[in-house]
Design goal:
Layout lengths: L2 E2 L10 H9 L17 E12 L2 E9 L10 E2 L2 E3 L8 H12 L6 E6 L3 E3 L4 E10 L13 E8 H5 L4 E5 L5 E7 L2 E3 L1 H13 L11 E3 L36 E4 L4
Parallel strand pairs: 2-8, 9-14, 10-13
Antiparallel strand pairs: 1-6, 2-3, 2-5, 3-4, 3-9, 6-8, 7-8, 10-11, 11-12
Length: 256
Amino acid sequence: MTARAGDMHTDGIPEYLGRLLDQADDLPLARRMPQPSATARRSAVLILFGEGPDGPDLLFIEKSAHLRSHAGQPAFPGGGVESGDDFPVGTALREAQEEAGVDPEGVRVLATLQELYLPPSNRLVVPVVGWWDDPRDVSVGDPHEVARVARVPLTELVDPANRYRLRHPSGYIGPAFAVADMEIWGFTAGLVDAILEAAGLARPWDTTDVRSLGESQRSPYTLPGSGDDDPAGDAAAPTVADPAPDGPATRTVRPR
C-alpha cells in the first residue's frame, strides 16, 4: 500500500499529479517485481516534479563516469538508508540534497509508492513522490559520484520520438527514453513509464522500435557493496556505462 499525504498537502498540485496519486496503489511496474529477500537493504529515490522555465519537469541525475558501477547512468536521486534517517522520506530528501543540491524545505512530499525489490543488488526501494513548491537552482554534489543534474520537461519524456525499447544481450527488453543527452532505461525508465501511464500523460509510441544495447554496456548483475549506493540502476537491466561529459554540469533541457 502507498502512503499519501493529507488533503491539505495536495492543494494546488497539478491535475496530472492528482491522477498519479489516485492510481499509485496499482502502479503497473509493481506487478512485475519479485518478492524481496529477508536481507534486502532499504533504499529510497525521490521522484521530484516541479514547474520549470519550460513547463512541468522531472529531476534526474547522471552518475559520474568514474564510478565502478552505474557509471554514466541517469537515475532519480536516491540511495540506501542511513542511521538517523526518517525512512523513506528522510532518506530520499537527504540523498537529493547531497546529490543534486535540493533544499528539503522547498519540497512537498505527496506520497510514498509501493516498495520495489531489485534482486541484483538485493535492495528494497521506496519511490517518494514530491512537488517542488519552491524550485531553486540545483547543483552537482560530489562530482566523483554525480556528473550532472538535469530538469527534464515532461513534454520531452512523453514525446513519442524520444521513446523506444532497449534490448540487452542478457535478453532483457524494457522501455527507454532519449532525452537531455541521456539514455534513460532499466529500473528508472520502467518507473518513469509507469508514472506517465498512471498520470494520464503517456502518448502512443512505437513499441516495435527495439534497439540493442551497445557492447560497451556493463553486466546487469552489479553486486551489493560494489562502490555505488544508488539503487536506481539495479533492476533486471544492465548499467549504462557511456562516459559523461567532462566536468559536472547542471542544466534544464529545453523541449524541441
